[in-house]
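Render PLP-dependent aminotransferase family protein in 3D.
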Amino acid sequence: MPSADVDHFAALLRDRLRHEHGPLSRRLAAALTDLARTGALSPGTRLPSERDLARVLECSRGAVAAAFNALFEDGICERKHGSGTYLTATGATSAMDRLLSPGAVFADLSTSVVPDPAHLHLPRLDPADLLRTPSRHGYDPRGEPGLLELLGDVLITGGGQQGIDLSTRCLARPGEAVLVEEPTYPGALAAITGCGARAVAVPTDERGMLPGALAEALTRHRPAFAYVQAVRNPTGAVADAERVRELAGIARDADLPVVADHTLAEVRHGGPPPGRFADTHPHGTIEVHSLSKTLWGGLRVGWLVAPEPLRSQLTELKQTGDLATSTVAQRFAAELLRHNDITAWRAELTRRRDHLSAALRRELPQWTWPAPAGGLSLWVRLPGTDADAFAERARELGVAVAPGSMFSPDGRYRDHLRLSFALTPELLDQAVPALARAWSDHA
């Protein structure tokens, strides 16, 4: 089971203690609970000892003991005789659980997805056509031949998330480090922690990971692989081609596998396409693709581009999970690809991005965000605000938003939100006044 590095752990606690009030033991218990609830710590993490934590926090051991006792009572942690204190599965909530949590809202800005399939041109199909496949039984391990004709020599998956999960299970072992950009996609963090690995954030700028920081992380952590994004979720930054070549060269020279997420690569609002790690590091790169961001998420059709022997290993792993992706979904996806050009949908998304940006500037001029060159969301900073608490208030008023702590392996970005602009302008116009009211109530 992974252990929490005491100095790093203390830094996370200090950041949270600043937002709490009251006796230290109560503040410490609340901060520890928050680390669990936001997914900053994965189930099974071994916490530092009371003595070590008291030392680095420069507080009494009694205060730490009282905080731990409160966590035991609430089921957040458990003691294992002779081993230490561990975070329980009950106490931890993954970022994906929080993102997809149910609730009565009229505007869901929390999920960066195509909101509905209304933009699609639907082909005329005989249902029997969806059931025809050369194998007849439909268990085609790598994918339905008709879809493979359009996509090439790839492995079809049940959406991009399955592709990330398969790649993670193929490359990482429990306890190993996986390098990620920060902020990054919560689904990737869930896949990494789900297989017992630990996500390690590498500093970035608008062009991607910093090359020096990547080189340092390679030496310090000896990672299993690096997870990167062609269009970054949540910021909307597009991977710079020159930076990608430099990073891919570092990864190639270090024999570091790379999982490159291209699920948003086609969702750009002008500008050049993202760089491809596979161009420089072809034998060590797995590309993850999906139709969820361009056609519709409900199709659950994606694909992996990978060199041998990685592709064969990924195929074997997939067969242990679901044998094969639905033939019906694949044949329908192939027909949709033949009858739809995403250019018009991409232009509509750009219009919705600009619409939400203008509305936020009018109603909430204190909020700031970088103009996203791609993706379906704004990465918004709320100055001096605990975004987790703000998100709860916004949901009470009928608007779901994604707090920034979900996008960091350490639960950082507590003053940020991800806001999807994929909904219709009419719904966005209803959502912004509710956000302004939540902001006014929270201030």
